[in-house]
Specification:
72% helix; mainly alpha; single chain; Helix Hairpins; globular; 0% strand
């Protein structure tokens, strides 16, 4: 026997919490929602965060509203599972971030004053360091403790190197970063030439870490830069597919020379359009 959905006269967040509770109800909830765990939902949480970023990148506010709702659902989902275990509930999540934001903005909610943005940043980092100390429960804390392991690897590399740079562990200037990239590329080439694929994998990681450092030095978000290039690759390859289809072909019925020529056409068309 089905029950009606929570009424739309409820405050929106209360209705969402009630909907999630119903979906997780062991008696008459949704079988898929019932069987989920923190671990199985986590990939969807990451995916929804990327969907939010994509909507922002496209400047599509209608999609952004929808994607923020999807991301909010992820928070509600995790909070509901935690509540079922007696760990915490949604209100505890909201209260925790409320407290953190007030604590980290003493210049807004208390009497602290900052002479400049740089001074404010120092104060912010000091507050976060104090939080790390409390979380460390007596052990010596590290600047890198709260850089999440679950971040995309390039993003985490930027954050790790930024933390280290904040205390002076950084190359003197960008030329040193470029030199280090050349050095790591040479080591990668050497391992490839030797046929040692395991060492090549490790050297590839070193190359990517330096690339992340170079991006940080240039104040470029590597994930954003790569998303841009991914989109460019998709546009150009789809042009190749389109022209091949007009010729009665698919890519696997073509050859590299033909596809390269079409790729160059797509590239030239983009440049001509940009120059207008």
């Amino acid at each position: 026997m089905t029950r009606p959905a929570p009424p739309d006269t409820m405050p929106p967040i209360d209705r969402l919490l009630a909907i999630m509770a119903r979906l997780r109800d062991p008696a008459d909830g949704c079988p898929w929602d019932q069987e989920q765990t923190f671990a199985t939902v986590a990939p969807y949480t990451v995916e929804e965060a990327y969907e939010v970023a994509d909507a922002i990148e496209r400047n599509n506010l209608s999609d952004l509203k929808e994607e923020l709702g999807d991301l909010l659902l992820q928070v509600v989902f995790h909070a509901r599972m935690a509540e079922e275990q007696g760990a915490f509930a949604f209100d505890d999540v909201a209260e925790a971030i409320n407290d953190k934001m007030v604590r980290r903005h003493p210049h807004v909610f208390a009497e602290e004053t900052y002479a400049s943005l740089a001074h404010q940043k120092q104060g912010w980092e000091a507050l976060k360091a104090a939080e790390r100390e409390r979380k460390g429960q007596g052990r010596v804390s590290s600047l890198l403790d709260d850089v999440p392991v679950g971040l995309p690897a390039l993003t985490r590399a930027v954050k790790l190197s930024k933390r280290a740079a904040g205390v002076g562990f950084v190359w003197p200037d960008i030329s040193h970063v470029v030199d280090k990239l050349d050095e790591e590329l040479a080591e990668l080439k050497a391992e490839i030439a030797d046929g040692d694929l395991e060492k090549a994998r490790q050297e590839m990681g070193d190359v990517l870490f330096v690339v992340a450092n170079l991006a940080r030095t240039l104040d470029v978000d590597p994930e954003d830069a790569l998303r841009f290039t991914n989109a460019k690759f998709v546009r150009r390859f789809q042009y190749v597919e389109k022209v091949l289809a007009e010729r009665g072909k698919t890519p696997d019925q073509s050859d590299l020379a033909e596809m390269d020529a079409l790729w160059d056409e797509a590239k030239a068309a983009e440049r001509a359009k940009a120059a207008q």
